[in-house]
């Protein structure tokens, strides 16, 4: 091997060594970045501004992935934590959801009382009513005398649901009408004294009691003239 060939071999070896060194450097950088970033975990970000004391739902937040080491220890990583919670302050769009932003929804406000009634599982809003929901309560009554029209009445508006119990099978009651439900769900409301009287009266004497779910963040005000419905007067 002459001197020119020896120089070529030496240059080739040096090139290979340089390439190996560069590759090792890249691997070192990647390893260093991974060690600093770490594995990614799920977190949740506020979609739009949320007013204080608003009942929270999963649709108000969007799922994101971010490095675990950058996530604060009180970040919310499971939206089941929102059940029965309200915003403690204004939640700004794009903010990362954290436990200190939410609190348990107050069970009762001044002047309210807890009232639980059985709601027919077939005529209630099956599976959609949860603690924190707001509902209007409808009741249908038979005419007081023969020939009197049956009536549907809105007896309570914007009733706040505190708790939803488990499906219960009811024993037949021969003293009640034949339309008595056989499966019902106990639902606990936070009501004023007069609304508590209305809803317990309806449970005792109405043919049916139904719940109408009110959209989150809204309320329904019903004029007195629209609270009673009779088929004969419908135009």
Features:
2 helices; Type Iii Antifreeze Protein Isoform Hplc 12; 11 strands; alpha+beta; 20% helix; rod-shaped; 2 domains; 235 residues; two-stranded antiparallel sheet
Describe this structure in words.
This protein has 235 residues and is an alpha+beta fold. It has two domains: 40-104, Antifreeze-like/N-acetylneuraminic acid synthase C-terminal domain (Type Iii Antifreeze Protein Isoform Hplc 12, Alpha-Beta Complex), CATH 3.90.1210; 113-233, no CATH class. Helices cover 20% and strands 29% of the residues. The strands form three sheets. Strands 5, 6, 7, 8, 9, 10 and 11 form a seven-stranded antiparallel sheet that branches. Strands 1-2 form a two-stranded antiparallel ribbon. A two-stranded antiparallel sheet has the order 3-4. The radius of gyration is 32 Å and the shape is rod-shaped.
Overall number of domains:
2
Q: Please tell me what the overall shape is.
A: rod-shaped
Secondary structural class = alpha+beta
Q: Please report the distance between the alpha carbons of the first and last residues.
A: 111 Å
Helix content: 10-25%
Task: Specify the number of helices.
Answer: 2
DSSP strand count: 11
Strand % is 25-35%
Radius of gyration: 32 Å
Biggest β-sheet strands, sense, barrel: 7 strands, antiparallel
Mean pLDDT: 79
Helices and strands, in order, run as HEEEEEEEEEHEE
Low-confidence stretches at least 5 residues in length (pLDDT < 50)? none
